[in-house]
Amino acid sequence: MNMNQKGFANIVLIAVVVILVGAVGYFAFVKKSEPVAQQPTPSQNQQVSLRTPSTPTLTFNQGAKPFIQINFDYSIAKLFNIYRSISATNGWQKVISNFPSNAHTAVDYDYPKDAKVLYYRIVSVDEQGQESAPSPIASVAVTAQSETVNWQSYFDSQNLPSAPLGVMLPQNCRVVGSGSKMVDLAYKIFAGFEWSVDCGSRNNNARGTLGPALEQQGWKFCDSQTATGHWWKNGVITGIAESAGVSYPFKVTQRSGADCSSN
User: Fold this and answer.
1) 57-146 is classed in which CATH architecture?
2) What is the pLDDT along the chain (263 residues), one digit of tens a residue?
3) Hey, where are the domains in the chain?
């Protein structure tokens, strides 16, 4: 190999090395420059799993201001939306939004007064407003407002109701026994009705348990005295007397009264 050939070979070798180094550098740069794919957060592509409520229990309460009481398993979520319709197949309207689980019992006063049957279903709601699948549908028969019972007729006839008039007890509370008539001992005359109510562990806080429910149902608070409290609505005064402890039911009384001053 002469000198010219050897020099040419060296030039070719250097060119190959430069090309290789350039190629390696290019690919290293491209790889480094590739954007890192952002890992999606759970909130971007994973909907929070919400439990479907069970079938609600509905009760129609007659009175001067009738309403539907809605009970359900509120332990499965913190918030709920409640839907109502006059048809089991369509026309659903959201009537209560973000109902908190710690309120326990929902009440619907503004239902269509000309309806004969109402349908309800419930969904769980998360903090972003996402809803679960709806609960099974429940229905309740209602009475037209003009057909509601005259409470005063019970006092006039001394016909003992099976439960306090116009009072929907909170969930897990119940009337014990059949109630009784009260007598004014001084005048030996009929004075009203009395029932024993058992709310389990809440018996020793009867006013704190039943009082808020009464006011939600339209009863006007009158007064609170030692171990007793009174509320008024529709010509009736409802009294609550605290029990001796959680093992004993508390007393609910009702008597006729024009207003709170009749107490």
Assistant:
1) Sandwich (2.60)
2) 555 555 555 555 565 555 655 555 555 554 555 554 554 444 443 345 899 999 999 998 876 678 899 999 989 999 999 999 999 999 999 999 999 988 888 999 889 887 889 999 999 999 899 999 999 999 998 876 544 457 888 899 999 988 999 888 888 899 998 899 999 989 899 999 999 999 999 998 999 999 988 888 889 999 999 899 999 998 899 999 999 888 899 999 999 998 998 87
3) 57-146, 149-262
Predicted structure pTM score: 0.51
DSSP letter at 105? Answer: E
From residue 34, alpha-carbon distances to 24, 29, 41 in Å are: 16, 9, 21
Q: How far is CA 226 from the centre of its chain?
A: 32
Quote the distance between the C-alpha of residue 58 and its chain's center. Answer: 13
